[in-house]
Write a structure and sequence with these properties.
The structure is a single chain. This protein has 134 residues and is mainly β. Helix content is 0%, strand content 60%. Strand 3 and strand 4 form a beta hairpin. The chain is globular, with a radius of gyration of 16 Å. It starts with 12 loop residues before the first strand and ends with a strand.
Length: 134
């Protein structure tokens, strides 16, 4: 039963949508996984999708799956570039990884219009502006 499974809490891991470059007419955004732990994350997998309403109709992006392998302690890895057109949608990232043969997973959800200039902070390790969920 589900109640019998151990609760493997995800801590010191973040997903960030980072502003990687910009010009007067366009901003480039990249999604990063950030390992703030002092342990290696093994066999990291992330699935991503966007969904919500645009112009009064429901839209949903394709589900993308990313295999990142191992992520070293106190480091980060790029997951995907994110198109500015989907920043107004709910963007969901489902992370799973292993530490010492124990599986962990967590869903990170960026709500519509949360990736805006007013919410930008300096992202640790990446050292660029972005929006982060920890």
């Amino acid at each position: 039963m589900k109640k019998d499974l151990p609760e493997n809490i995800v801590e010191d891991i973040a997903i960030a949508v980072v502003l990687t470059s910009e010009s007067p007419e366009f901003k480039n955004w990249t999604v990063y996984l950030i390992n703030l732990k002092n342990e290696v994350l093994e066999n990291v997998m992330i699935s991503s999708k966007g969904y919500g309403e645009k112009d009064g109709r429901k839209v949903q992006t394709s589900v993308l799956r990313h295999s990142l392998g191992n992520i070293m302690p106190q480091s980060f890895a790029g997951v995907e570039a994110i198109a500015p057109e989907v920043l107004g949608l709910t963007n969901e990232y489902w992370l799973s990884y292993y530490i010492n043969d124990v599986i962990y997973d967590k869903k990170f959800i960026f709500l519509p219009e949360s990736i805006v200039d007013e919410n930008l902070i300096r992202i640790p390790l990446v050292n660029k502006p972005g929006v982060m969920i920890k």
